[in-house]
Design goal:
With 131 residues, the protein is an all-alpha fold. 74% of the residues lie in helices and 0% in strands.
Length: 131
């Protein structure tokens, strides 16, 4: 599938698609980012007084697991050096998004843990989802 094919399937001009996305990889990343933001939307809607942080972190874990299972082929595909770099970029961005969400939860509850702890927890969640 090419960006031209996507544009044809969507009934838009190829130039229009290139205006928003330089490549099909950029389009795929935008779709993944949109899905991730939808999957973690619940974090912004939470009243910290009505749910324990452990429950919220569990919900984040389940959202991350669902997301990573849905996109595992795109994230882990390595067909060429260029694709491998793009896949590595997607992996690192996903890992970073999990870390950001954990930090947001910790902040909501006034938990001032060190960033290293949160990054390690994000790594564990990420790795567990692919095991």
């Amino acid at each position: 599938m090419s960006l031209r094919g996507v544009a044809n399937d969507c009934g838009i001009a190829l130039g229009t698609s290139y205006h928003y996305f330089a490549s099909k990889t950029d389009l795929a990343h935008a779709v993944m980012e949109m899905d991730w933001n939808q999957d973690i939307k619940f974090i912004n809607d939470v009243d910290p007084g009505k749910i324990l942080p452990e429950k919220l972190i569990t919900q984040l874990f389940l959202a991350a697991r669902k997301f990573l299972k849905q996109y595992d082929v795109l994230i882990l595909t390595h067909r060429s050096y260029r694709t491998s770099w793009m896949s590595l970029t997607a992996v690192m961005k996903t890992w970073s998004e999990i870390s950001i969400s954990l930090k947001q939860i910790m902040h909501m509850y006034g938990l001032n843990e060190k960033d290293a702890f949160i990054d390690i927890l994000a790594e564990c969640i990420f790795c567990h989802c692919f095991c």
